[in-house]
């Protein structure tokens, strides 16, 4: 079942479009294309593909209903020749791809297990399991959503250890919604916040869409600024970035 959050989708799509336009030369997506981990209903990315000539995206999603919904959305936008979706595991399907850039708005609900109202939103015990796995891969550039309550401290530490720097980001607040307030999810969010591994108040949290890169063509590192935007304490590993 695809997850639908208009505000989050619009934020991800707008931010992704800006990144791909601003860094078109450095990311070289016109030559190599882009791969996507998790398609959802494709509403955010289909609009980007429609508005960015030459952009080609190959995507994978493990949820069959989401694939059906995504293909319908892609057809409505008339970009089926440049945006394809496959039902299956991203990590297996993308192996050997020439693309150097991966995009994702990953599931990031933290909880002890995936027995949730919408299991496809489970991001592991800390909410960042898929993102950490992605950062352990071969990608030169990662454009990803980072949620302030899904152990962004651990995410930024892992990114730095893997050789990534934060080139740019756009952050916005979102309300804690139905799925974030599910009791086991909310309890885990509070544990992460209390441990200094994330941020959320009684009603909201932050989501940033960030470009992480290993490329020497993109200079500087805004990891500490991103931590601040996510309301995080400036831990030593980020302060030194």
TrEMBL record:
What processes in GO biological process is this protein linked to? methylation
What Gene3D superfamilies does the database record attribute to this sequence?
Vaccinia Virus protein VP39
- Molecular functions per Gene Ontology: methyltransferase activity; nucleic acid binding
SUPFAM superfamilies reported for this sequence: S-adenosyl-L-methionine-dependent methyltransferases (SSF53335)
Q: Which PROSITE patterns match?
A: N6_MTASE (PS00092)
Listed name of the protein? Methyltransferase small domain-containing protein
Which species is this record about? Answer: Klenkia marina
């Amino acid at each position: 079942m695809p997850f639908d959050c208009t505000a989050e989708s619009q934020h991800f799509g707008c931010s992704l479009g800006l990144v791909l336009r601003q860094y078109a030369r450095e990311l070289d997506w016109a030559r190599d294309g882009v791969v996507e981990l998790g398609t959802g209903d494709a509403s955010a990315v289909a609009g980007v593909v429609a508005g960015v000539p030459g952009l080609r995206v190959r995507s994978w999603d493990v949820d069959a209903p989401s694939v059906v919904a995504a293909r319908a959305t892609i057809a409505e936008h008339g970009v089926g020749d440049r945006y394809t979706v496959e039902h299956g595991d991203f990590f297996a399907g993308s192996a050997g791809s020439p693309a150097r850039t991966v995009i994702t708005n990953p599931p990031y609900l933290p909880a002890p297990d995936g027995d949730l109202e919408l299991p496809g939103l489970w991001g592991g015990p800390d909410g960042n399991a898929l993102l950490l796995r992605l950062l352990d891969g071969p990608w030169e550039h990662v454009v990803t959503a980072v949620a302030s309550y899904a152990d962004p401290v651990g995410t930024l530490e892992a990114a730095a250890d893997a050789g990534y720097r934060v080139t740019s980001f756009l952050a916005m607040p979102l309300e804690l919604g139905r799925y974030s307030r599910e009791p086991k999810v909310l309890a885990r969010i509070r544990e992460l916040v209390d441990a200094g591994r994330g941020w959320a108040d009684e009603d909201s949290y932050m989501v940033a869409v960030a470009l992480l890169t290993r490329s020497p063509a993109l200079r500087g590192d805004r990891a500490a600024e991103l931590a601040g935007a996510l309301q995080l304490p400036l831990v030593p590993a980020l302060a030194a970035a």
